[in-house]
Amino acid sequence: MIEIDLNARILPEDHNVYVIRPGSSYGLFSEITQQSTLILELPGLDLTSGQRPEEEDLRRRVNRSRALRGWYNGTREADSKPEMELERYSPIDGGASASQLVGLVRTFFERMKVGDLVIVPPKSYMDDAWIGEVTGGDYEIVPVRVGRLFGDEHLPGREVRWIARLPKRDLPYEILDALQKPNAAFLVERSLRGRFYKIAYAATSCGVAKQMANVAEGYSAIHSSGGLREGLRCSRALGRSPSLAANEVFGCGRTPRNGI
């Protein structure tokens, strides 16, 4: 017998899961986890909350931020501190590095949607990665100060709600391998997302409602406002029935590990 959990999470078909590195040397992990705010290591970016910046304006801001970050990571000599006037920075300077950071800002505040999952790994393999759900809207900027790293400069942040934790050593190899590269944020492959959905929502992975319906006799996928109901939850199964198969494959009804 299969029961449909009417409280199961509904996820849109374009739902995504991101890995967010907490700073270039994991130096923002404490602030991100304790303040429930995803933070970009871009001091002095100074985006206006609620406004999407034009490309030229954003490139100027990114180049200023790059200069400030270099200064704070260097000698911090007062007479060499970068200028703050935005007009002093060219929108065509910076090359590929500036273009990558512009793309990062767009991903962080635009492509990443409310409800998407984020995984924030710690530096140590013995500590937990935090799994959360984005709650701040597009370009809803939360200014954060991290004085020990960037003095009085603000870093741009976006609100997140923490849901669960997972030991870093238990993250999929593909994610651990990607963390060896200097990527500030990257998408988790769809083939790897099921585990995180189970941990975060105690339900099945994105889009499997239709698959489960194919093996669960008599049921079909449930559609709701552009999304599929996540999880026909298997509560009981007898013998080797299709419901048991679904339960074994998708882990229906299991309780998230290390919930926050």
Task: Offer a few descriptive terms.
single chain; 260 residues; alpha+beta; seven-stranded mixed beta sheet; three-stranded antiparallel beta sheet; 8 helices; 30% helix; 18% strand; globular; disordered C terminus
Verbal overview:
- With 260 residues, the protein is α+β, with helices and mostly antiparallel strands.
- The chain has 2 domains: 1-16 and 188-260, no CATH class; 26-185, no CATH class.
- Helices cover 30% and strands 18% of the residues.
- It contains 8 helices and 10 strands.
- The protein has helices spanning 29-35, 55-72, 95-111, 147-150, 173-178, 193-201, 208-215, 242-250; strands at residues 10-12, 17-20, 37-39, 117-120, 128-134, 142-145, 154-167, 185-187, 223-224, 227-229.
- Strands 2, 3, 4, 5, 6, 7 and 8 form a 7-stranded mixed sheet that branches. A 3-stranded antiparallel sheet has the order 1-10-9, with helices on one face.
- A hairpin with a 2-residue loop joins strand 9 (223-224) and strand 10 (227-229).
- Helix 2 packs across helix 3.
- The longest helix is centred in the first third of the chain and has 18 residues, at 55-72.
Rounded to the nearest angstrom, the distance between the terminal CA atoms is: 32 Å
Query: What's the story with the biggest beta sheet?
Result: 7 strands, mixed
Average of pLDDT: 82
Strand content: 15-25%
Overall number of domains = 2
What is the helix fraction of residues, given as a range?
Answer: 25-40%
Beta strands, count: 10
Structural class: alpha+beta
Radius of gyration: 21 Å
Low-confidence stretches: 203-259
The number of helices is 8
The oligomerization state is: single chain
Shape: globular
H-E string = EEHEHHEEEHEHEHHEEH
